Amino acid sequence: MKKGLVLTFIIILAVNVFTPSLVNSQEEKTQDCSSLITSPFIPNGQPLRAFLTGDEVAEFHTTFLNGSMYRLAACSGRNEPIIFSVYDTNRNLLFSNDEHNKTNTWDFKITGSVECIIEAKLDTKQATSGMALMYIGFKSMQEN
Questions:
Q1: In angstroms, rounded to a whole number, what is the distance separating the alpha carbons of residues 67 and 59?
Q2: Is residue 129, in this structure, part of any structural domain at all?
Q3: By CB distance 3.0 to 4.6 Å, which of 49, 71, 96, 119 could disulfide with 137?
Q4: What tens digit of pLDDT does each residue of 72-110 get?
Q5: Per-residue DSSP letters for 97-132?
Q6: Tens digits of per-residue pLDDT, 30-68?
Q7: Domain count, the chain
Q8: What is the rounded CA–CA span in Å between residue 55 and residue 33?
Q9: Is residue 106, in this structure, part of any structural domain at all?
Q10: Domain range spanning residue 108?
Q11: Does a cis peptide bond (omega within 30 degrees of 0) precede residue 40?
Q12: Which of 120, 109, 29 lies closest to 71, judged by CA?
């Protein structure tokens, strides 16, 4: 009985000691990714996140509005490149960073509002699992 109580206490202590550091490291990585959204862009404050393994692909849906300029930023928890593609709802490819040396940002203007599908995946040559993070920043075209 005494050994079980001591073991339980050690497990609870270990969880309390190590869990905050894991949470903080995830928050720091989110902040690192949001730092890719620099002035004059404003981050929308809602990171798109997915934990991926192997060839899994995360799919995010968003609407880009008429009259705005956007920056799409991607990063991973361990600084591996994230491969992302943007499609319209008919699955027409609008952009893929795989065709642009796996750049982690893309700036683009929108004329006419459009619903889009953003797909993100890991570069399996460099990582077999990890967190994919994406941020969207915007600025009004009227400010130019």
A1: 25
A2: yes
A3: 71
A4: 999 987 778 899 999 999 999 999 999 999 999 999 998
A5: GGGTTT-SEEEEE-SS-EEEEEEEEE-TTT-SEEEE
A6: 456 778 898 899 988 888 999 999 999 999 999 999 989
A7: 1
A8: 22
A9: yes
A10: 32-143
A11: yes
A12: 109
Residue 22 in tokens: 């894991």
φ and ψ of 71, to 5 deg: -125, 125
Residue with tokens 């499609």: 87
Does residue 3 sit within a domain? no
Against a cut of 0.85, is the pTM above it?
no
pLDDT (tens digit, 9 = 90+) per residue, 101-126? 999 999 999 888 999 999 999 988 88
Residue 37 in any domain: the answer is yes
Instruction: Find the CATH number of the domain harbouring 46.
Output: 2.60.120.380
